[in-house]
Design brief:
Number of strands of chain A: 9
CATH superfamily of the largest domain in chain A: Nucleoside Triphosphate Pyrophosphohydrolase
Oligomer: homodimer
Helix content of chain A: 25-40%
CATH class of the largest domain in chain A: Alpha Beta
Strand content of chain A: 15-25%
Structural class of chain A: alpha+beta
Order of helices and strands of chain A: EEEHEEEHHHHHEHHEEH
Number of helices of chain A: 9
DNA sequence: TCCATTATGCTCAGGATAAGTATAATACGA
DNA sequence: TCGTATTATACTTATCCTGAGCATAATGGA
């Protein structure tokens, strides 16, 4: 490695690295995340940990009693501006996305599953655009845009608001979860922004979290919403056997919007990701559905080929 | 944050975090990366740095004299197994992808641009599949697959080799850069694997790098190859004015494969990402081409909508 | 003048996609 | 027992996207 001028006089450049998990499950058509009070499962990366992932697994299992299955890295954040002191050692958060099922949870821990739309009420468009966007978010963002001094900044702000929240007849893009959160933060419309010593009134509903955990959660949701469209990751969240409608409901729960039923089936079937078990679903209203299971053998191929998701236009 | 059992007795869980940059440019149809001897530009994250990105920018500018433009985070690695001692403090590498142009480089630094295919000769398929895949890579991987004890592992290995390298009449997937590197590492066919105390002979050509920098480079190439298909990032690598063929050659250089010319133009034009400057290219063979410039105004919209790339089947 | 070379316009077939129509199978209440 | 609500599943249709190829235009040089 090449030498370079040192930026600080300090000789030890030690930082503390936290491992943070966004642990997701879908139960009865509702997406859930694992929380401990107002925090995500997390803990420091320690000497004893052989790797980042094993460290994360150790912490999550200790705190929630839940063994981690599928895991992928999300993003690494440094806390900027939280502590005003530039001399204080840095704290880094390395975040991960984990996918499981809600069962097999140890009940004696402080860990709980909670619906992720409690933290992001504006993200659930399954029953149409939620009213709070037109009633609260849009007007507040318009006011924020107007409050800029120069006309060009005003324009840029309102364009940004319109794009991220699908205002002015623009299409809603469900993947922009993080952009929407950051916009609300910058506009000081959520508790985290007020807490971090910005002016404002936290006008937009939705549960806040400790430090930057809600930002990390937004990152995880955005990643998952993007990924279900080209990788068969939904199956990590499904039980061993399921009907096609249950699969569809899970996808819709994650994407926060509805899907064309017939086309969804066609897509799933032509991908050859599932096979019939031969059994039928019991205890249903209406005509009983065939049960399917995931074809694990195809994953190796499909992990490469890609999977898509047909979102409705309306 | 919830309490949890400590995994180690040590009370200080300090780690050292390195910032590593994969800095990319494309000059005359060749993709280049910034190197300092056999390393990527890098340096420790220090107290004085306000954020990870500013720290990275400081290091890269100090080491290369090159100001960083577009930057995005890639991945965070921890060195596992390099030092066998589990007690030694961890070293974390937070890697970034940066895009620029080769000009405006300070020439007195030790930093140099080098072609990225020198590090990954098997990744350049612009003139068809490179011969070294059939001559060296494929046979060595087959031998590695056969060397497994159980039949099931043998099958899994050869299937993995076939998928990642497009063997047995499978299609080449240019995005699997990291998977290919990791496969060669596991099969002990490259110098890094031999160095890290595995058996083997490093039979596959290609320049190695310090520590895990070549793995980081593979991560960066893979990310860039995926991203040019749905975000207009190519323009960060182009001069202010360019012909459509120059743009195409840059895309091909990055993707490592050719593109259908007419369809490429159709796609670019219908996306409305560029506009004519009115001038024509000078000093050409054949019919002179129109010069185009990137429409910066569209980025805000397009950053959302997505861009695609028409790869040829052949 | 002919040819090599690059630019650019246009067509066409096949496949994917969104959306709608129609029919089948079940439970339940009047 | 007969509708009716509800869900499952099979087809149809129109449109758009994509890969691929053909044709023509403009330039310089032999």
């Amino acid at each position: 490695m090449a030498k370079a001028p040192r930026k600080a006089e300090t000789s030890i450049d030690a930082t503390t690295a936290d491992l943070v998990a966004v642990l997701v499950a879908v139960t009865e058509g509702e997406p859930k995340i694992m929380t401990i009070a107002t925090a995500l499962p997390s803990g420091p990366f320690q000497f004893g940990h052989r790797s980042l992932q094993t460290g994360l697994r150790a912490w999550v299992e200790a705190q929630t009693g839940h063994p981690l299955g599928y895991v992928e890295q999300l993003y690494t954040f440094a806390d900027h501006g939280r502590t005003g002191d530039a001399r204080a050692p840095h704290r880094i958060s390395i975040s991960y996305l984990g996918l499981t099922r809600e069962d097999q949870v140890r009940e004696d821990s402080q860990a709980h599953w909670s619906g992720w739309y409690e933290y992001f009420p504006w993200e659930d468009h399954r029953a149409g655009t939620p009213p709070l966007i037109a009633k609260i978010v849009a007007p507040k963002l318009r006011a924020w845009a107007k409050s800029a001094e120069s006309t060009s900044v005003q324009k840029a702000r309102s364009q940004r608001a319109a794009i991220t929240f699908g205002l002015d007849d623009r299409a809603w893009n469900e993947e922009l979860v993080l952009q929407r959160y950051e916009l609300l933060y910058e506009a000081s419309l959520i508790p985290e922004a007020v807490r971090d010593k910005r002016a404002g009134e936290a006008a937009v509903p939705g549960r806040a979290m400790i430090s930057d955990h809600r930002r990390i959660l937004a990152t995880g949701i955005a990643r998952l919403r993007a990924k279900i469209k080209y990788r068969p990751v939904v199956f990590e969240l499904m039980p061993a056997e399921f009907t096609l409608l249950q699969l569809q409901r899970s996808v819709e729960a994650l994407a926060g919007r509805t899907v064309h039923k017939q086309n969804f089936r066609r897509l799933i079937e032509q991908q050859e990701l599932v096979e019939e078990t031969g059994a039928m679903a019991a205890e249903t209203v209406g005509r009983p559905a065939k049960l399917f299971r995931f074809r694990h053998g195809v994953v190796a191929e499909r992990a490469v080929a890609g999977t898509k998701l047909p979102l409705s236009r309306s």
